[in-house]
Amino acid sequence: MMLVDLDDGSEDSLLGAIVKVLAESVLASAVALKRCSRRFKVLAAPLVASAVAETNQKWRDAAAKIGCRGGAAITYGLERNEVLTNLNLSHKNIRHEGAAATAEALRGNAVLTDLNLCHNKIRDEGAAAIAEALRGNERNMLTSLGLACCSIGTTGAAEIAEYMSGSEALTTLDIGMNLIFAEGAKAIGEALKVNEVLKSLNLSDNRTGPEGAKALGGALAVNAVLTDLNLQQQDPRRGRRCDRRGATGHEVLTHLNLRHNHFGDAGTATIAEALRSNQVLTTLDLSSNGPITAPVDLSGEYDASGIALADVEVNEVRLKTLFLGNNRIRAEGVTAIAEALRGNEVLTTLDLCANDLGDEGKGVIRGVR
To answer: Carries keyword Nucleotide-binding (predicted)?
Structure first.
């Protein structure tokens, strides 16, 4: 919050001070002025016009430096809007130099709320420039930042994490399909421990591995805000045997994507056990984590995917959507799931596609309807 000096005490001085603050804030828009009194408009008009002109000039400078499709996108946005609040620069062949130009435009910007730079090769240097500009802007109002598939490594992830740790506005961060590895995930995890506003985080396909996943799980044991976490891996070999106990025990997490992590029997049983303490998760994707075939202690004579998941996930957690496709679940496991479903009034979607159910297993599931 910005303090206003009221020592003068006069009404004109008070209005002038308020107008100056508004002109430099997210309200620096003619749209906001339309709802104000005539006297207020007279005082505010030149200040607002100056603030808007300065902001837009920064974007024009950035557009000139970026050039090609990225610059054209900025120019088009300025032509359609008095001030830019949303900027989509995805798939514009922007390199780290273009990201640096974008960062310069972000300095002092108090209007932009959504920035999408996905699918550009900005690398660590570009990510660092964006993060540094946002950290140094006390009036920054950015709520959504897209940096997926930007060739960002551990250094860039650490810079983004530092920005995250101090941000009071960012609620959505997409940094999927990069190469942040375990060290980058650890940095993000440390930021999550102190961040109090981020609700959605995409870290899919980043080769975070067991150590990275463990760090994220530990962070989620402390974080009480994040509701949507995506840790899907494209390569089934990545993230193998990761410890997700912190993630699944998180008390506010409602959506968890763990597809293609190759957990197998032991990993699935661990997740099932951890879910006993979660009462809010509504969507869980464990597709392509097989083969899940061998018995474990928790499952008795059934395979882990059957009794472990059915007993815990379907009954004790408030799951509405459960994906278990491509896990080589057999008829015995389906029988356990079917038994759990008989008294369930919450689950609305169950995906068991591409499993070894056989005619017997399919018949069991049909009988639950």
So the answer is: no
Q: At what angle do helices 331-341 and 358-366 cross, to 10 degrees?
A: 10
Contacts (Cβ under 8 Å, ≥6 apart) of 124: 96, 152, 153, 155, 156, 159
In a domain, 79, yes or no: no
- Residue 24 in any domain: the answer is no
Are 348 and 323 contacting, i.e. CB atoms less than 8 angstroms apart?
no
- For the record, the structure tokens of 173 come out as 């961060």
Residue 141 in contact with residue 26, Cβ under 8 Å? yes
Q: Looking at the domain assignment, is residue 32 inside a domain?
A: no
Phi, psi angles (nearest 5°) of residue 203: -120, 25
Q: Where are the alpha helices (DSSP H) in the chain?
A: 11-23, 30-33, 38-66, 68-80, 96-106, 123-135, 154-166, 181-194, 209-220, 245-248, 264-274, 304-309, 331-341, 358-366
Give me the number of domains the chain comprises.
1
Q: Are 246 and 272 in contact (CB under 8 A)?
A: no
Ramachandran area for residue 79 (φ above 0: left; ψ -120 to 50: alpha; else beta): alpha
Residue 4 in domain? no
Q: Give the per-residue pLDDT at 267.
A: 55
pLDDT by residue (tens digit) across 58-85? Answer: 999 999 999 889 999 999 998 888 788 8
Which residue segment(s) compose the domain that 347 sits in? Answer: 84-366
Label residue 272 by pLDDT band (50, 70, 90): low
Considering the entire predicted model, what is its pTM? Answer: 0.76
User: What residues form DSSP beta bridges with 115?
Assistant: 87, 145
pLDDT per residue over 205-245, tens digit each? 998 887 887 888 888 878 889 999 998 876 444 433 333 43
CA 333 to CA 70: how far, in whole Å? 52
